[in-house]
Design a protein that fits this description.
The protein is mainly beta. The protein has two domains: 126 residues, Roll (Nuclear Transport Factor 2, Chain: A), CATH 3.10.450.50; 141 residues, Beta Barrel (Lipocalin), CATH 2.40.128.20. It is built from four helices and 19 strands. A hairpin with a 4-residue loop joins strand 16 and strand 17. The radius of gyration is 29 Å and the shape is elongated.
Length: 307
């Protein structure tokens, strides 16, 4: 919300008749007294809330709110009351394991004797998921000597929602999948300055009358034009392709398109689900070749191999 303020400068003039003097004096506005102890108490409460989240303790998280406290997120309805907040966080922790929370407090400002607002950025990382950052504003109320949350608002912005190539840092290394009819190998390495990841891959497919070999190179990075993770693929036979990555809360959804060296156009949606640091599953659906639909491919498990 934008607020427009106007300022009127006034000069206090005192007339001292006995001396026949006119004195002009500018008086600076009184600044709010420093409240370091209370500010530290609010900061400590905020950090304790983050630690309760890391423990996955929904009740402990809800206890940081007033009895009638509210949580607001731009993507869901308002959650009111400790009981509802505890349930919401319980559902979240059930779906997100091994949560890590980084809380960056920008500032704390007091609105009155028993009210304050804290603003900052919170980053939540769960197992096998990329980091999720959002801006927040917390209204703290002092009740019975304790600072509790009356209202917590979270929202994303261009800065916090932008994709980060570090979300795929776990891919660095060598990977392989092997089935009766095919073997694929890939090696992911950081490019200079760690702005891009380079992947060299090879695929060997056994057909009825021959074995087909294919090699190529992929470059993975954040496309600054759209703020999404993007892949550029170059096949050794002259084909090219590209894909955009989005996170749907459980897996990477990769919309890809390409053109083979003979001009054949290919399209597919690839689903990549991480399973710890040393495995992921890959499935290709909604496939087509020059507009003609192709059958979906079953999920394939890809495992990390020692180099």
């Amino acid at each position: 919300m934008k607020k427009h303020w106007s300022m009127i400068a006034t000069v206090a003039v005192a007339v001292v008749a006995a001396a026949g003097l006119i004195l002009a004096q500018d008086k600076p506005p009184k600044s709010e007294p420093a409240r370091p102890d209370e500010e530290n108490a609010i900061r400590e409460a905020s950090e304790s809330l983050a630690r309760a989240m890391e423990k996955g303790d929904a009740k402990a998280v809800a206890d940081f709110f007033t009895q009638e406290g509210e949580y607001q997120d731009e993507d869901q309805d308002i959650i009111r009351g400790r009981e509802a907040i505890a349930k919401a966080y319980g559902d979240f922790f059930a779906k997100r394991k091994e949560v890590k929370v980084q809380n960056k407090i920008d500032k704390v400002r007091f609105l009155g004797k028993d009210t304050a607002i804290q603003e900052g950025t919170i980053t939540v990382t769960a197992a096998d998921t990329p980091a999720d950052s959002s801006r927040y504003s917390t209204l703290y109320l002092r009740q019975d000597g304790h600072w509790l949350i009356g209202l917590l608002k979270e929202w994303g912005d261009e800065k916090t929602s932008k994709a980060n190539i570090n979300d795929l840092a776990w891919l660095i290394g060598s990977w392989q999948t092997e089935k009766a009819e095919s073997v694929s190998k890939s090696k992911y390495e950081w490019a200079e300055n760690k702005k891009f990841i380079r992947c060299d891959y090879s695929v060997q497919i056994k057909l009825k009358d021959k074995t087909v070999h294919s090699k190529g190179t992929q470059v993975i990075g954040v496309d600054p034009a759209v703020g999404l993770i993007h892949t550029w693929t170059f096949d050794s036979e002259g084909g090219v392709g590209e894909a955009s990555w989005t996170w749907d809360g459980n897996r990477w959804v990769i919309h890809s398109s390409g053109t083979l060296s003979d001009g054949t156009e290919l399209n597919a949606t690839n689903l990549m689900t991480r399973a710890g640091d040393n495995a992921f599953t890959w499935r290709s659906v909604n496939r087509s070749s020059s507009g003609e639909p192709l059958p979906d491919l079953p999920a394939v498990k890809v495992i990390r191999v020692k180099e």
